[in-house]
Design brief:
ceramide cholinephosphotransferase activity, about 325 residues, globular, lipid metabolism, 2 strands, mainly alpha, PAP2_C domain-containing protein, single chain, Sphingomyelin_synth-like_dom, two-stranded antiparallel ribbon, about 65% helix
């Protein structure tokens, strides 16, 4: 084949070379734009996730509320798992108790105690429904109850007390062999407890060993303390109703022999202490919290993170008077 003249080859190369450079440059620009688009999508995705998790609803960040509720669910399941496990280790001979030696076993009082637990819980949920800052209350009480349930799980695993009933062998379910333990049985026990939210039917055989830290007392005391703390001052007399009911309920728990006296005392002391310490910390000014002796407790550093965006003080949670349903009730009372 004949070769092209030199001047033609030079002119063609001078024309083609810039075109090749432009094509390469355009390809590089396209690749850079694609990478920039991917980076923008990643950044926008991260931003959206960050925006969702940091959204504030009712004065509470969504991520903090989810953290507290997850903690509560895990703590509750840890209770049920512990009870399902220790049932096979618990003895069947009741221990001596000062109240048992004075008052005979009155099983009907357990139904009274359960009814009081329901009433105290109803008063708590009614307060949540009517209060304008209900999400703040939910976050605080959920964290308190989760901490108490965690303490309860540890106490159940550390020391197992036999039930205090006269006929423990009839009331308690049969125990499985320690060496040949069937984990399917334990899983079924946990699921049955979860389905009943931790409550047991007195008319049926029960899982035994749920002692040393009364769950009934925990529910009654925390409910009554919450109502007393967050109920508006206009309804101050109503605060004493769940308080008195909880004392009656605690007495019923002992004389029905559902719990020993020490179970109720421990639950009362710890529930009151944790509730009071948490809310005492919440009433400290934000600038002074890290200087407080309470901040030395590692758990209070978590509380500080939960409360960082909430204005300190009880009056700020119940500010601007009672919420609308309470105001409506006040107008009815004043009109009469």
């Amino acid at each position: 084949m004949a070769k092209l003249p030199v001047y033609l080859r030079y002119s063609m190369s001078s024309i083609i070379a810039p075109l090749i450079k432009e094509e390469r440059k355009s390809n590089v620009i396209c690749e850079e734009k694609k990478e920039e688009g991917k980076d923008e999508n990643r950044e926008s995705g991260k931003f959206v996730r960050h925006l969702i998790m940091n959204v504030t609803v009712g004065g509470v960040e969504l991520r903090k509320l989810l953290f507290v509720l997850t903690f509560l669910v895990l703590a509750a399941f840890s209770n049920w798992i512990a009870l399902a496990y220790i049932h096979d280790f618990v003895g069947r001979e009741a221990l001596p108790d000062i109240v048992f030696s004075v008052v005979p076993e009155l099983l009907w009082t357990l139904k009274v105690g359960d009814a009081i637990v329901t009433l105290c819980s109803t008063s708590f949920f009614t307060l949540l429904f009517l209060h304008k800052n209900r999400l703040i209350i939910i976050q605080r009480i959920a964290f308190i109850v989760a901490c108490l349930y965690t303490m309860r799980t540890i106490s159940l695993l550390c020391t197992q007390l036999p039930p205090g009933y006269i006929d423990n062998n009839k009331r308690c379910r049969s125990q499985s062999n320690h060496t040949g333990r069937d984990w399917h049985i334990i899983a079924w026990r946990v699921l049955s407890q979860a389905g009943k939210l931790g409550f047991q039917d007195m008319d049926d055989e029960m899982l035994c060993g749920d002692l040393l830290f009364s769950g009934h007392t925990l529910a009654m005391v925390v409910s009554s303390l919450t109502v007393a703390y967050y109920l508006p001052d206009s309804f101050r007399p109503l605060r004493y109703i769940p308080c008195m009911l909880s004392w009656v309920g605690m007495i019923c728990m002992v004389i029905s022999r559902t719990h020993y006296t020490i179970d109720v005392l421990f639950a009362y002391w710890l529930s009151t202490a944790v509730f009071s310490i948490y809310h005492a910390f919440c009433e400290i000014d934000l600038t002074s919290r890290k200087l407080s002796v309470l901040y030395r407790l590692w758990v209070m550093q978590i509380v500080g993170w939960l409360e960082i965006d909430i204005t300190p003080g009880r009056e700020n949670v119940n500010n601007k008077g009672p919420p609308r349903p309470f105001s409506f009730a006040l107008r009815i009372i004043n009109d009469n």
